[in-house]
Specification:
Blueprint lengths: L14 H10 L4 E4 L3 E4 L2 H6 L1 H13 L2
Antiparallel strand pairs: 1-2
Length: 63
């Protein structure tokens, strides 16, 4: 299982903005259960690395 860097879970109210931000990078996103997401295929993730890192930076700054 992936390690959580920020140490906090996303609030339910933050999920729509997170999903929208990931989609804007060009990556597909799929919810897995109640607490996990799978992001696109490897080519999509590689192409969107900088944008995805920015999403993570913003999420960690808000915690």
């Amino acid at each position: 299982m992936a390690k959580r860097e920020s140490g906090r879970l996303m609030l339910e109210s933050e999920i729509p903005a997170f999903v929208d931000a990931v989609i804007e990078t060009g990556c597909d996103i799929c919810a897995i259960g109640q607490d996990s997401y799978a992001l696109g295929d490897l080519e999509e993730i590689d192409a969107a690395t900088d944008e995805l890192a920015h999403i993570d930076e913003v999420a960690c700054a808000d915690s």
